[in-house]
Amino acid sequence: MHPAFSVVFFTTATGAGYGLLALLGTLGGFQIIPPDFWLGFIGMGLALGLIVAGLLSSTGHLGRPERAWRAFSQWRSSWLSREGVASVITFIPAGLFGIGWIFFGKTDGWVGIAGSLAAIGAIITVCTTGMIYASLKPIAQWHSRFTLPGYLIFSAMTGSVLLNALLQGFALGSKVQLAACLLLTLTGWGWKLATWRYNDRLEIPTTANTATGLAGGTVRSLEWPHTEENYLLKEMGFRIARKHGARLRQITQLLAFALPLGLLAIVFALPWPLAALLSVLAAVIQFAGMLVERWLFFAEAKHTVTLYYGR
Amino acid sequence: MTCLPSQSGKKLGLVIDLDTCVGCQACVTACKEWNTGGHMAPLTDIDPYGGHVDGVWFNRVHGYEHTTEMGGRTVNFPRSCLHCETPACVTVCPTGASYKRASDGIVLIDEDKCIGCKLCSWACPYGAREFDTDVGVMKKCTLCVDRIYNDNLAEEDRVPACVAACPTSARHFGDLGDPLSAVSQLVAERGGVDLMPELGYRPTNKYLPPRAHTARPASVAAPALEPVRADGGFLGWVDRMLSN
Fold it and tell me: Which residues cross the membrane (chain A) (predicted)?
């Protein structure tokens, strides 16, 4: 599948944004982190900023973005529509939580309830994003039991590492938060390795034989219907060289998992300004790594239409 | 609504005979000619006379080599929308632009509602949908909905343009929901198949596989000429005259 940057950035940014929003809503709403003005302002600004930037980026993928409002109508059948509805509904408790925290300086009572609702909305929205991909049968690498948990794990991981950077910046970091970051990053790393292992051994029942209805023997593409690349090949026939794929998997592991793990492990032993600096660095590096991971998620996915082209 | 309608039982579709298709591309050009002015018009061409030709087509004919232990053969394979009974391209649509008609099962797009998110083209395993980058919306085969019900056309012309154009009658149009229809009986007689049945989209269109190879191989050598007796008869005289 063609890795359009608008969609790669959209899923990575909203994943991190919703992860951070869920954590702020829960930890703030239950007074585990203090209702500090600047913490709320920067934290909620960062979470909602990432979400809004991601959603705006996703409209860049549309042929007719001025009609995007129509996408809220088919929630009964379409995961994309459900994602749109869930993302917009989540803005209501998230907005109330942000207003309560920043302007009223409180995160208990109704603000706390809004925080919990925002966290639930964030989790639901990430689920709908994952299901858009997990529900597509023609793409075996996406239509697997690894896709939905992957979206949830990576959202929690990037959101948690962002929250740690934020808390360390305000000298509010804790060993528990650091340990959570390490654990989630390790989980993410393991999940990604398991996903790649599964995808590399995938035996797809759909072949050129079943695609053409020609039973038995071999079906070899002799001639395409067109001499130039068409929409199908540009959008769904994207191929990545095996050696580049292997290198990009290494880069993903280094940036998204290994380096953040190393940096955050050092933060345990560092005093305030340095701990904050390394925590921010870990979050930025991990975000870059997740962009590579998401690019590969598209680039390595194979659509059944390529069977008609002998690919 | 992109939820699938309860069907009336009528399932209009095509039956494509891979045994008789000669790959002449007449259906491809007839489709393009009709539909670039039809229901889903235009079928935009990008840079048609340049070095990077691209454009929207509803019907494309591939060429394959099918090799079995019985030998090899070339198969021409027309590929277009199969108007599936459970089309995921319809249910994934977030706007309601894609829909399946309850009355006859035709899958269509309302171009005025399409936002061009391309998700339907990802959901179709057959590559039946093509995005029009110029208009910014998705396009697909309409089963020539503007021909088959068109009272302005002579009755024999009320078939999809691809069916009307086929010089070898490799394309058949009819109601596959009616077991007594000519197309249903053709499918039963020739063992028509679904494409990618394992994905569960339940396509309406059927493909008739090429007929089996016979045990009588065709002779490829030219037949021997009658021997000419140089010593007599009329042909012998002609031979002598011409040899002088």
Answer: 7-32, 38-63, 84-104, 110-136, 148-170, 176-194, 251-270, 276-297
